[in-house]
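Can anyone check this?
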Amino acid sequence: MKNLIRFLIGIIIIFLIVITSFLIFSSIKNDVKMPKLETENLDFGKIEYNNENTALYMVSTQKLSSSYNFIDLRINEYVDSLIASVKNKDLSEYKDKIKDSEILKQKIDTYKVNDNILSVKVTSMLKKSDEEKYTTSVKNFNFRTDLKRELELNELFKESIKEKIGEGNNFLLTQNKLKLFSSSKATSYTYNSLKEYNSSKLLTAENYEMTQEEYNELMSRVIDKDRKMVAITFDDGPHKTNTNMIIDILKKYNARATFFMLGSNVKLYPDVVKDVYLSNSEIGIHTWDHKDLTKLSSENILSQVQTTSDAIYEITGKRPTLLRPPYGSFNNTVKSTVDMPLILWNIDSLDWQSRDPEKIVPLVLNSVKDGDIILLHDIHATTIPAAERIIDSLTKEDYQIITVSELLEAKGYDTSTTRVFYSGRQ
């Protein structure tokens, strides 16, 4: 009996020692939560995950596995260097002073620009043990698969571009954007699809240069967040003649707009849709045949949106990301059924009602402010001269005339969480 009691006491003592050790270990770790950081784009390759948690550090990283060994080697070497920067610190002698664990969270996004160009973005978040906030950094890698080497920024453009963008080499290429990263900000330049340039003008072994016209276009698309900006939108098109006339006006003033198109008209005028797309203005969805979505079932709402998206995708190869509900009418069913932001407006030109430029122009110009979304319709001939007068006046007042997506991005809105927009200053 005495032996049994001694045995039980021994078990209890061991249990208490284990619990005490666990509590000490936990106090060092201080119950730190890992930040949320997930891959958003994966055009090529697979992700391999690595997680390590100790009392002194927490690491959650990704490595790349693709059919391009030279790319995997470069990316994974960089990831290893991030991990080593945390793990190799001799923190043991400071463990009594450490408030929290050293935390590293990292992710990879991959982009296929064209058959010869692949890009990789590595985003990392680091919280040092003696700091409360995370520091986020982005490192980009761009590769020539045909030459099996990294691509340098100065290979893409003429020497004169350095006067605008400097000597930095932390840049990311996608199919229609060059994004430059510095310690303080990331700046996006938008241009025509690199797919089109690949065969003749840009990013070939023979010629890395842009024409002067292409260079001017690239430089002109820098959006200055400190200047005034508006988004002009056109509904109910495309129209067989009016839409292209508006595109010409936009080009004249180096402006862009967002065209919310009806699927039924997309089917009628595919060439016009293509012209809008190639002009680098934005295309959004305005349903198939202008039905009030609040009077439809979820199934019919989806049909109106999806059939229009399919029609646009068939012509452009790109799916719209914005929806303007007809009449600006929506309810909770519409919001929960459609997985994209709803774009309304805060300035209605009433061009559909007056059909008179002498009424349309002052109505807009007397109300306009930085961040506004303006409603016009490219199906009405009278809107064309009105639009040119509006764009001319806004340009002279130093407004940037940009797409809805550019406006919302410049104003810092997250379209994945905010579902309804009336302007860029809500």
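Reply from J.R.: I decoded it. Residues 31-151 form a domain with the Heat Shock Protein 90 fold (CATH 3.30.565.40).
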